Amino acid sequence: MTPPPVTVDADRLWSTLMTMAEIGTTPAGGVRRLALSDEDRAARDRLAEWLTAAGLTLRVDDLGNMYGRRAGAQADAAPVVFGSHLDTVPTGGRFDGVLGVLAALEVIRALNDAGLRTRVPLEVVNWTNEEGARFVPAMLASGVVCGRFTREEAYGAHDPSGLTFGDELARIGYRGEAANRLRECTAYLEYHVEQGPLLERARTQIGIVEGIQGISWNRIEVTGRAAHAGPTPMPDRRDALVAASRLVLLLRDGAERLRGVRATVGRMDVSPNTVNVVPGRVEMTLDVRSSHDDGLDAALAAADRACARVAELDRVEVRRTEFWRSPATPFAETVISAVAGAARGRGFSAKRLWAGAGHDAKYMADRFPAGMIFVPSKDGLSHNEAEWTAPDDCARGATVLLDAVLVLAGAV
Amino acid sequence: MTPPPVTVDADRLWSTLMTMAEIGTTPAGGVRRLALSDEDRAARDRLAEWLTAAGLTLRVDDLGNMYGRRAGAQADAAPVVFGSHLDTVPTGGRFDGVLGVLAALEVIRALNDAGLRTRVPLEVVNWTNEEGARFVPAMLASGVVCGRFTREEAYGAHDPSGLTFGDELARIGYRGEAANRLRECTAYLEYHVEQGPLLERARTQIGIVEGIQGISWNRIEVTGRAAHAGPTPMPDRRDALVAASRLVLLLRDGAERLRGVRATVGRMDVSPNTVNVVPGRVEMTLDVRSSHDDGLDAALAAADRACARVAELDRVEVRRTEFWRSPATPFAETVISAVAGAARGRGFSAKRLWAGAGHDAKYMADRFPAGMIFVPSKDGLSHNEAEWTAPDDCARGATVLLDAVLVLAGAV
Question: How large is the average pLDDT for residues A257-273?
Fold first, then answer.
């Protein structure tokens, strides 16, 4: 297969990325661009300029999602949509999210340079509040568009200082029309940095994302008996922290024995949490991820066996409650194939993998054929000011995006 | 050996105890009588009445410590001093501290009833702020009397609302004269509930306390690498909480292998402590206790080996720093013998043990011959509204106190 006669401009992409990174830049070289902040507004304004300059028709919906549309030969066909988000976590980097938006812009610029039209329209998208760092939950605006949340839920979400999503959206001038929401879509593609170490370690250039892992969030409560650290002999103790510690190790071992499962105890709160008192109670969280829902179930069954074992060994009560679950979301075979074909066509090394983190592509996949492209993250780092993806890697991903979009949208 | 012809009145002691428990009583049947609070003042006022009514000469020193003196045949001899404290923790019980003060009063009443004089004077003492629950540190006033802290340190100590020890002492009318401080002492005896389960479990009536355990407080910092719970494969993680958990279990095992050592991880703070982030850092405390200073040293050496092992296994950094140490304090053989002889003389079952918690007797032992008497605590509970010691047990301890005081002070 000969590569199509159109190609992204690696230098232009990089310089666009670095220009955007000047908005909200941190002393350590990262980016702080919280959703609906002044920095987010500045980034949106700049993006709007660039999209318009590239000939796209811009519209903003009632969640602040921005869409830049390029007409297709079939004017009324459902568009191929691609993009990501401009917002960051408080100490974020220069690639997470923004790479997908600006590579989408670069795809448009490259098509313009080549004078190439597509059969169906194209739309570049910037989703509002993907990170969930300012307004909980994450992926809030794509979630409304895809029917996961109501607009009222989104508008009512408030940041730690009490400001609401709705008010902040209006304040920065990005509260558009509900009629502007995305309603139909031939395919959705999101290009993103991996945020994990697999591609880098395998010295592989492109990640063909097969889906987004299922996630189960659980609360585990361990109840023992608080006692004086001084007068209480070791064999008499019902130490909730000793029990919780044993459980952490069993959960880790259990996850390592199950293929494709990840388990994390991320939070632990000890009570009374005092130097000279044997802990009476520990509350902790368990995050389990798997690319298959029966992976989640197997991991949770193993977790329950571990809880029972600890309860017996350490004479404590252990209770696990699942408080949130997001099922595994496989991507559409058409989109996966378009990505795989594009990578193969360009001679890039590629590897199939599952996304471990959430992305707007998850909610989009509930309604439309969707997929993702990953490129390596140095040391697997993200949500970190030191986040880094090399210029060549950025360009390779954009090239795969370009080619896959052409396959999905049809070149004319 | 025939018991001396004097005996405590078990009913009077119990009714005195229960009367005092009405001051600061909680809905759950415990006591809240924080140092220098209105409740503490009311308890002190009542004690002052009782001491005076029993013929004692009351004086109050500049720390609010109350001494009730009964003259001896040798007017100028150093007194035998015995007592404890009236203050409690916020949800305390009816026995911790107050039993030692009111049993001391009962000893005086019993001697009065029997018309018995002693060779050296007797002094009943109520120490201010033993618990440290309102003003840190604990045992503050006995610590000043014994030269461990300055009066300025004590006066400057403040409660969580910012009120100082000095001001509150004046407010409740118990700021006396420095000249009234205890300056000499033939022997000091403190009668207290065990606060642990050993006597109850051994079905033993009297604890002959050999000393107060040494305590070492340590901070342990575990540094791994924070990472996304989603995209980070299990083998890539440097999870500080997995490492800390392994350490908790190794520290527990290590302490169980060393005779007479207790080790407690009472506090653990996880960072960033978020459900979906692999913990990058854990800070925890280690409380080690032993009746011998080389027990402390052996336990800390074992702790360091455990830290090194965890650092290697889990690829984290582990650092231990001791931030406070209180050496083991053996009691005086003369006082221990007096207690042992008294228990034996009355035919009470008795057992030698070490106190695991701090008591005013610790600072007194730095300056004077000192010792303690324990009686059983139901289920080993203390600092708890459910604290319980049966009337018979209370009376037996008071009887041992009486007989030991007579031995140490000499009956005439």
Answer: 93
Question: How far is the C-alpha of A224 from the C-alpha of A280, rounded, in Å?
Answer: 5
- CATH of region B214-326: 3.30.70.360
Checking if the pLDDT of B1 tops 60, the result is no
pLDDT for A1: 47
CA distances from A161 to A135, A165, A170, A257 (A): 11, 12, 17, 43
Separation between Cα atoms, residue A208 and residue A288, nearest integer Å: 23
Residue B151's pLDDT band (cuts 50, 70, 90) = very high
Does A196 contact B267 at a Cβ distance shorter than 8 Å?
no
Instruction: Map out the domains of chain A as residue ranges.
Output: 10-212+328-409, 214-326
Flag if A266 and B274 touch (Cβ within 8 Å).
yes
DSSP string, B274-302: -TTEE--EEEEEEEEEESSHHHHHHHHHH
Neighbours of B46 (CB within 10 A): 16
Set of chain A residues whose Cβ sits within 8 Å of the Cβ of B215: 230
Distance from CA of A164 to the nearest CA of B (A): 23
| Per-residue pLDDT tens digits for A66-100 | 999 999 999 999 999 999 999 999 889 999 999 99
Q: Which residues of A touch B264 (CB under 8 A)?
A: 229, 239, 276-278
pTM: 0.83
Place of tokens 């994990």: A196
Q: Which fold has domain A10-212+328-409?
A: Aminopeptidase (3.40.630)
> Is A137's Cβ below 8 Å from some Cβ in B?
no
Q: Which of residues 165-224 of B touch A (CB under 8 A)?
A: 194-198, 213, 215, 217
Eight-class DSSP state of B260: T
User: Which chain B residues have a beta carbon less than 8 Å from that of A356?
Assistant: 228-232
Among A256-260, B63-67, B113-117, which is the least confidently predicted range? Answer: A256-260
pLDDT digits (tens, 9 = 90+) for A100-140: 999 999 999 999 999 999 999 999 999 999 999 899 889 99
**Mutation for testing the B interface, residue in A89, A213, A274, A275 having most B CBs under 10 Å:** A275
Nearest CA of chain B to the CA of A318: how many Å? 17
Nearest CA-CA partner of B360 in B100, B170, B58: B100
pLDDT of residue A231: 87
Give me the numbers of helices (H) and strands (E) for chain B, helices first please: 12, 16
Q: How many beta-carbon pairs under 8 angstroms link A with B?
A: 181
pLDDT tens by residue, A196-206: 999 999 999 99
By C-alpha distance, the chain B residue nearest A323 is: B275
CB A222 within 8 A of CB A318: yes
Chain A residues with CB under 8 Å of B278 CB are: 264, 266
The complex's ipTM works out to 0.83
* CB contacts, 8 Å: B355 with chain A: 230-231
